[in-house]
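Next up, a chain.

===
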Amino acid sequence: MTTQSEAELENEFISRLNSLGYTSVTVSDEADLLLNLKENLERLNDLKLSDSEFQRILNILGKGNVFERAELLRQKKHHILNDKGKSLYFMLVDQDDNSKNSYEVTNQVTLFGKYKTRGDVTILLNGLPVMQIELKRRGVEMKEAFNQIMRYKKDTFSYGYGFYQFVQLFVISNGVNTKYFANNRAPNFQQTFFWADKDNKRISSLNDFSSAFLNHSHLMDMIF
């Protein structure tokens, strides 16, 4: 009997997300993340941003701790002055019409900070990372995945524009067992939870968890 590698589990998981309506995008580093964010904001708000206008948006979004970023994410409208000095309003997320939002998945994004890190799978909502998933091969304790996420939070999440501080939820899984937990200043492993169905039956496998927890509607419910 062969053991599924982490890479195989990751590829299988991404394919599962694709079947749930997530579009795979290539985001190698923060520069790619910014380009993808600009494209998503232009699409969502039906506008074209100049480089200077986008920089003004980055000046708003690139500040604050985990809680302040969460408030920014949930704010319905944001405001800058455009290049002509007039008010330009924009949304990060359409909270009234979910069909207008873009759900994307990427993997192995390299972030630079105190150390270089490269996480497994990131879910992007209109270009902003809102969920980070760390996967381990079957048989590995999930606490290893939890500890790895904690290293990423400490070493790289706040560097650059710190957009990974927009992450609202983390998921850890070895394929057989899957748990989630909320982003906060000091998470601990006791704050990780299994998901359950309406009959309180635990949903452990990554595939079943994906269907129940990561469909677009439920993801929005969990975030907002």
